[in-house]
Amino acid sequence: MQPLACSTVIYTKDMRRVAEFYKRTLALVVLESEVDFILVGRSGLEITVVQVPEDIAKGIHIAMPPSRREETPIKGSFLVEDLERVHTEAAAAGGGTKPVVAAWRWRGQLHLDGYDPEGNVVQFRVLDAQPVVAPHVPQPASPASARG
Predict the structure, then answer these.
(1) Residue 130 gets which letter from DSSP?
(2) How many CB atoms lie within 10 A of CB 11?
(3) Which residue, 64, 69, 104, 114, has most beta carbons within 10 Å?
(4) What is the pLDDT of residue 114?
């Protein structure tokens, strides 16, 4: 298998639950599984979910529902086929998303923020059916029209 240019690693207290969340929301399959990690992915996308050591895990409290870890400086953003499906699967797998109507447009995509079962923030995107309209930029007057 060819290495990807970019992949994601997530350290978790409950590796199986978090791996299941990403598997369901992103329509991934288990590519590899060991005692301390689960690699899920599909063509062009891999997420390695790593179990934190037990001595560290003891000090981590995950609220139910999980508190969002919005103070982190990074958020994964994933292109998906259907935000409604993701919204349903995220809730069923112990995480969640904002309501689908809260999705916002940018760069020809609809973006929907969510969180995994441990509160890690994540974003889901779909291609937007509305055409992208470039902002109007006034053009400078031609030299001929400037002479009056």
Answers:
(1) S
(2) 18
(3) 114
(4) 97
Residue 43: inside a domain, yes or no?
Answer: yes
Q: What is the reported pLDDT for 59?
A: 84
Structural domains in the chain (count): 1
104 SS3 class? strand
Three-class DSSP category at 29: strand
Q: Which domain holds residue 74?
A: 8-53+65-132
User: Cβ distance 123 to 136 under 8 Å?
Assistant: no
Residue 146 domain-assigned? no
User: Distance between CA 97 and CA 41 in Å, rounded?
Assistant: 21
Q: What is the CATH number of the domain that holds 43?
A: 3.10.180.10
pLDDT number for residue 69:
87
**Burial class (CB within 10 angstroms; exposed 0-12, middle 13-18, buried 19+) of 78:** middle
According to the model, what pLDDT value does residue 64 have?
A: 82
Distance in angstroms between the alpha carbons of the first and the last residue of the chain = 66
Q: What is the pLDDT, as a whole number, of residue 57?
A: 86
- Pick out the chain residues at pLDDT < 70: 1, 130-148
Integer Cα distance of 64 and 17 in angstroms: 13
Question: Is residue 84 situated within a structural domain?
Answer: yes
